[in-house]
Design goal:
Blueprint (H helix, E strand, L loop, with lengths): L2 H21 L8 E3 L5 E3 L2 H14 L3 H20 L6 H10 L5 H19 L4 H21 L5 H13 L6 H20 L6 H19 L2 H17 L5 H7 L1 H8 L5
Antiparallel strand pairs: 1-2
Length: 260
């Protein structure tokens, strides 16, 4: 399958799922959230994005589908049953020390397992599996951490996936599909009618992590993992939103297309 076909498949899956959800959108309060402006939104964009992400992953074979599916399923679990009392990695570890297993820690462990399963199914060298799993889980978590304003996470995913779309197949083919899924979902997210939640952010982030695994060489994967780890650790002490607001170029990109 070529890049155009992958983009069409992923974008179409997003649109069809979004249309179905408009006719059958769960009324349960767990599907409702207040965004950063305290406006009510639904989580419907998450499953729609996840459908497109999995469709894009299908163009790359079973390992990519494993990574994307783990991200989508675990993210949906955290959306619907998540424990919001613990924040950040330190918060989850502190809760574990106190004898309480949070849904966030379950999700992170599951994302690592998904990365390992994807690597094993792709017959990756044993020495590379730890880096592969950490990169898939870390990227999925980082995209979710950035999903604090409408469109922010999707813009990151679109830019990252666009960079990998220049790679040889399967990374290039899957990357084109992931770009399409992100762009098709972006208007609903920017319009503050819906949000992608953990389901969408973790699905897209996990697949982006897998694209880094298959699209980069050994040194590139290690550099990407160091960058993801550094940003994740920085998020424990520094507000990404505050940094973006203080940086004119980032502030302009972050606000692009968002309601004033």
């Amino acid at each position: 399958m070529n890049r155009a076909s992958s983009a069409g498949l992923a974008g179409g899956a997003c649109l069809v799922t979004a249309a179905l959800l408009r006719h059958w959108e769960p009324a349960h309060p767990r599907w409702r959230r207040l965004n950063f402006r305290e406006r009510p939104v639904t989580l419907a964009a998450g499953p729609a994005l996840a459908a497109g992400v999995v469709a894009a992953a299908a163009c790359g074979g079973p390992p990519a589908v494993v990574a994307a599916s783990f991200g989508a399923t675990l993210g949906l679990y955290d959306d619907l049953y998540g424990d919001s009392h613990a924040r950040g990695l330190r918060g989850h570890l502190r809760a574990l020390r106190d004898g309480r297993l949070t849904t966030g820690l379950v999700k992170l462990t599951g994302l690592v397992a998904g990365g390992l399963a994807a690597g094993i199914s792709a017959k990756r060298p044993p020495a590379a599996l730890a880096v592969d799993a950490a990169l898939v889980a870390g990227t999925a978590n980082l995209v979710n951490l950035l999903d604090l304003r409408p469109g922010r996470a999707l813009k990151l995913v679109a830019v990252g996936a666009a960079a990998t779309s220049a790679c040889a197949p399967p990374a290039g083919t899957v990357g084109a599909g992931l770009v399409a899924a992100a762009l098709v979902t972006l208007p609903a997210d920017l319009g503050e009618r819906q949000m992608i939640g953990d389901c969408g952010a973790n699905a897209a982030g996990a697949l982006l992590g897998w694209l880094l695994v298959v699209g980069l060489g050994r040194e590139g994967r290690l550099a990407a993992l160091l960058a993801v780890t550094a940003l994740t650790l920085a998020s424990e002490r520094v507000s990404f939103t505050a940094v973006i607001e203080r940086t004119p170029a980032l502030r302009a990109l972050d606000a692009l297309g968002r309601r004033p």
